[in-house]
TrEMBL record:
This is Pentapeptide repeats (8 copies). InterPro entries: 5peptide_repeat. Keywords: Repeat. The keyword Repeat applies. The keyword Repressor does not apply. Pfam families: Pentapeptide (PF00805). PANTHER family: THYLAKOID LUMENAL 17.4 KDA PROTEIN, CHLOROPLASTIC.
């Protein structure tokens, strides 16, 4: 068997099925242990912030503009799973006085090691046509998929990390980004702060221009953006915490991971929008319309892996009086502590959605919906 034929056969018969098996196992682990992993993550973030504060107090470090978590390919090849963490000023990689730390992501990459071990056994059948070097190449290629789980997790962990006193006390630039990526390569924003003063009317006008690819990850907190015509815009991972969007039109929008916590959303129309991992915690959605929104937890397609599965949309503690969820796909969503007077769930997918037991009898649901819901005491 020629080299190219052997590699093709190896990929089809061993690489693909082994990857699927290990990534399914990682998906299940990440979904069920997310909060435990956060508790393991926070001490390392606290220590980084303490180091930053010490250097700032000694006049050795200025305001922080970036905190970057970087996957290191050399570490991956050596079977180590440490991310390099660097805190820098606004010059980012040009900063001469970097605060460095490490984060151990073994919880994710041990599944890559399992993938490699399985392929090492399968490789031997090919009588050295497929070499250890070929296996290293495959491992590095697939490592990026496991790395996606680290990105998704750190984005989730930041919701708690930014509330730590150690983080609050460090001196930060007006704009600060926390990013996860590869060393000196592409990275993604997992959290952003922007404390520059903004004029609500100017932001509303800008949003109504509906420019493509410019609003994602932006910070629009504590602004009155009510009565806006924002249909079709992309606000994925944007932060609108404590803003007012009452009676605004947000139909057919991309709202993946958007932070609507403690927002005024009375009468808002988000029909047909994509809400995966969005948070409406403690928000007021009285009379809001969310027909046919898509926000199910888990993979987009159970038959094939394309990206890590989403966490459920959260409406914990929200006022959902008269909110209309007709036809919504909210499998795995969190409704604990929400006000559910007159909430409409007609035709909604609530498979494994979490509700408070005290609300069980007062919510208008079909028997089929009730059987699929998780009722928490």
């Amino acid at each position: 068997m020629k080299k190219e034929e052997a590699l093709q056969h190896f990929r089809e018969n061993h690489v693909h099925p082994t990857f699927h098996a290990t990534i399914v196992a990682l998906e299940q682990y990440a979904q069920t242990h997310r909060d435990e992993l956060v508790q393991d993550f926070l001490p390392s973030f606290q220590q980084l912030c303490r180091t930053i504060k010490q250097k700032q107090a000694a006049g050795e470090k200025g305001e922080i503009g970036y905190i970057t978590y970087s996957m290191l390919r050399t570490e991956i090849l050596e079977g180590r799973h440490r991310y390099l963490v660097e805190a820098t000023d606004n010059r980012w990689f040009l900063d001469d006085h970097v605060c460095k730390a490490e984060y151990d992501a073994s919880w994710a990459f041990r599944f890559l090691d399992e993938f490699e071990r399985s392929l090492e056994q399968a490789r031997k059948v090919y009588m050295d046509v497929i070499t250890p070097a070929d296996l290293e190449t495959i491992k590095l290629q697939e490592a990026l998929n496991y790395h996606q789980y680290v990105i998704r997790f750190i984005r989730y962990a930041m919701l708690q990390a930014i509330t730590l006193p150690e983080y609050i006390e460090i001196e930060k630039a007006e704009e600060i980004e926390i990013r996860v990526g590869e060393y000196f390569d592409r990275s993604e924003i997992v959290y952003k702060e922007d404390t520059r003063e903004k004029e609500a009317s100017e932001i509303a006008e800008w949003l109504e221009e509906k420019e493509p690819h410019v609003y994602s990850y932006e910070v629009f907190t504590q602004l009155d953006l009510s009565h806006g015509k924002y249909d079709g815009i992309d606000l994925r991972y944007a932060n609108l915490m404590q803003s007012k969007l009452s009676h605004s039109a947000l139909r057919t929008c991309i709202l993946v991971g958007t932070n609507f916590e403690s927002c005024q959303l009375e009468g808002v129309d988000m029909s047909y929008s994509v809400l995966y991992e969005a948070s409406f915690r403690q928000s007021n959605l009285t009379g809001a319309i969310l027909w046919d929104v898509q926000g199910a937890a888990g993979w987009l397609d159970d038959s094939i892996w394309t990206m890590p599965g989403f966490a459920g949309v959260t409406f914990a503690g929200a006022n959902l009086t008269g909110t209309d969820f007709r036809g919504a796909n909210l499998a795995g969503a969190i409704f604990t502590g929400a006000i559910l007077s007159g909430t409409i769930f007609e035709g909604a997918n609530l498979d494994q959605a979490v509700f408070s037991m005290k609300d069980r009898e007062m919510i208008d649901l079909t028997n089929a919906q009730r059987e699929l819901i998780i009722w928490e005491s």
